[in-house]
C-alpha cells in the first residue's frame, strides 16, 4: 500500500516460484526481495536471477530481519543492490528504492542507439536503417528513443505516458496506442516494425526477439 501511494506499480508474489512466473510476464524495474521465503530462500532466488541473462541487470533490494554484518555482506555479494533490515519505515523503503533506480536506470543521453540494424541519433534527430531514412514525428521519435534505450522491458501505457509525454501532461492512455501505430507504420518501411511488440494485457516492449 505504501509503495502504491508513492506512485509505484507493484506485483506481489508469495514465493520465489510465484515471483519467477510474474517476472517472466514482464521484466520489472526493481525487485524487492525478502530473505526468508517459503521453499527457496530469497538469497538463492537472487543468485539464480544474477545467472539469468534476462534478469541479471534488474536491481534487487533485499529485505531481512538479519542485521549482522556477515549477512549484509552475503546479500550484497550475490548481487543485491541494497539491503534493508527490518523493522524499517515505509518512507525509508521508498527513499532506498528511488535511490537504487536513479543509480541503475539507464538514461537516454545523446549517444547513438542501434538495435538490429535500426539506428537512432538523438543529436541529429534522425532514424535510419540499411541506409534508408525513416521519417517520424517528434512524439514517435521520443517514444522510439525511450523504447530503444530500455530494450526487453515491458512498459504499461501509463509508464510510457510518464516517461515519454511527462508526468505533468494529462492525456488518455489510448493516446499511446495511436502513437505506437504511427511508429510501427514508419518503421514498416524497413521491416523494423516487428521490434515494437505488444504484450497482451500489459503494454509494449522493444525487442529483437520473436
Can you characterise this structure?
The protein is an alpha+beta fold and 210 residues long. The chain folds into two domains: 2-104, Rossmann fold; 113-206, Winged helix-like DNA-binding domain superfamily/Winged helix DNA-binding domain (Arc Repressor Mutant, subunit A), CATH 1.10.10. It is 38% helix and 18% strand. The chain contains eight helices and ten strands. The chain has helices at residues 2-5, 16-23, 42-51, 69-77, 90-104, 138-148, 157-165, 174-187; strands at residues 31-34, 60-64, 82-85, 113-115, 118-121, 126-129, 132-134, 155-156, 196-199, 203-206. Strands 4-5-6-7 form a four-stranded antiparallel beta sheet, covered by helices on one side. The protein has a three-stranded parallel beta sheet with strand order 1-2-3, sandwiched between helices. Helix 6 (138-148) packs across helix 7.
How would you summarize what this structure contains?
By secondary structure, the chain is α+β, with helices and mostly antiparallel strands. It has 8 helices and 10 strands. It folds into 2 domains: 2-104, Rossmann fold; 113-206, Arc Repressor Mutant, subunit A, CATH 1.10.10.
Tell me, what's the shape?
elongated
Count of structural domains: 2
Termini separation comes to 36 Å
- Rg to the nearest angstrom? 19 Å
At the first level of CATH, the class of the largest domain is: Alpha Beta
**Secondary-structure content class:** alpha+beta
Give a count of the beta strands, DSSP E runs of length 2 or more: 10
Number of helices: 8
The helix content is: 25-40%
Strand-residue proportion: 15-25%
Major sheet strand order: 4-5-6-7
Classify the fold: give the CATH topology of the largest domain.
Answer: Rossmann fold
CATH superfamily of the largest domain: Response regulator
Examine the secondary-structure arrangement and name the CATH architecture of the largest domain: 3-Layer(aba) Sandwich
Amino acid at each position: 500500500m505504501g509503495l502504491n501511494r508513492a506512485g509505484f506499480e507493484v506485483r506481489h508474489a508469495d514465493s520465489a516460484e510465484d515471483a519467477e512466473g510474474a517476472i517472466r510476464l514482464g521484466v520489472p524495474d526493481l525487485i524487492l526481495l525478502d530473505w526468508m521465503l517459503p521453499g527457496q530462500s530469497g538469497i538463492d532466488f537472487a543468485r539464480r536471477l544474477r545467472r539469468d541473462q534476462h534478469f541479471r541487470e534488474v536491481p534487487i533490494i533485499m529485505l531481512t530481519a538479519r542485521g549482522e554484518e556477515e549477512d549484509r555482506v552475503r546479500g550484497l555479494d550475490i548481487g543485491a543492490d541494497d539491503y534493508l533490515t527490518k523493522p524499517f519505515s515505509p518512507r525509508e523503503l521508498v527513499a532506498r528504492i528511488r535511490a537504487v533506480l536513479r543509480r541503475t536506470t539507464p538514461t537516454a543521453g545523446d549517444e547513438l542507439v542501434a538495435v538490429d540494424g535500426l539506428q537512432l541519433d538523438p543529436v541529429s534527430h534522425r532514424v535510419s536503417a540499411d541506409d534508408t531514412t525513416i521519417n517520424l514525428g517528434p512524439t514517435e521519435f521520443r517514444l522510439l528513443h525511450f523504447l530503444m534505450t530500455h530494450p526487453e522491458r515491458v512498459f504499461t501505457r501509463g509508464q510510457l505516458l510518464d516517461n515519454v509525454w511527462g508526468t505533468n501532461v494529462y492525456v488518455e492512455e489510448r493516446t499511446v496506442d495511436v502513437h505506437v501505430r504511427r511508429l510501427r507504420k514508419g518503421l514498416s518501411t524497413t521491416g523494423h516494425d516487428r521490434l515494437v511488440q505488444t504484450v497482451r494485457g500489459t503494454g509494449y516492449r522493444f525487442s529483437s526477439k520473436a
